[in-house]
């Protein structure tokens, strides 16, 4: 994570672009973003890249540009004491020139889609988060429209409570009472809440519920160095990122976390289907990989169903990757694996499992034995739907 700084769009000149850490640079403009809906197969890519290349991508937070905040980020943030020059010009332009239907569309702004050469349906796309830079020294945490974990209880009275949150000395800062000194400090861990690939067909998904395409998965493990694997649905993948966060607790109970814009450098790599199956088994939805963990996911509007789907995804991963018998893998998960609630506020709830790869350091991977002629186990072969529930 770089030193805190305001990162304006990079001018289109060779000297400025030479300072970009990625192989390409993609600004956030009305021509390069979608607001409220996610890409699908019929969308034209805003950038074409080769397999394995990286892109430095500007992202814009929805906080400060939404209709219930006035759809005028300059007025909204200066009313919070932010200097006019510290309000991002791309956020101002998007709010002023783009429209969405608040009753029909989601709130999120995503940058993309990006066409990755060679990506085909059935492959996995690996998105490696190489660098995240804070674009401004502030963000917003909101509980709005009767949403959140305590629907009908909070917020009390007002339909929208948005808490402006400056960053001080590398930490978020909140007061105990409105108007008082900000004595409550919490650490930052920047990540992109939305990372996805286009869905097949002509219907643009709502930006709120996550799914097999990724989207608004809100997994806070996706910090610098983490990788996200997504099942490709259309040629070229048509990848996108957005919903930037400075911090989020698992659950994201108030509806949003510390929402604030990031400049992200992401590397995009195609994992061909045959290799993906040998490495991970059948990956039906988002899977994260950190330095320590493999992280399968489960999603459903019912949190209990999401939990069961995550357990099945974890069993599939362990039996395919290490050839462990299913009942033993089940026992391992019960004894050694944490199942965390990603979020409960995005229509579709999310659960993710943290499987320590070091626990299997003494086991030969099935992909290695397969290369010598042995047969790799793929675990339970019972028919399942695309989300892991029994068909």
TrEMBL record:
InterPro entries, per database record: FmdA_AmdA (IPR004304)
Pfam families: FmdA_AmdA (PF03069)
Residue span of region Disordered: 366-391
A GO term for molecular function: hydrolase activity, acting on carbon-nitrogen (but not peptide) bonds, in linear amides
Name of the protein in question: Acetamidase/formamidase
Organism listed in the record: Serinibacter salmoneus
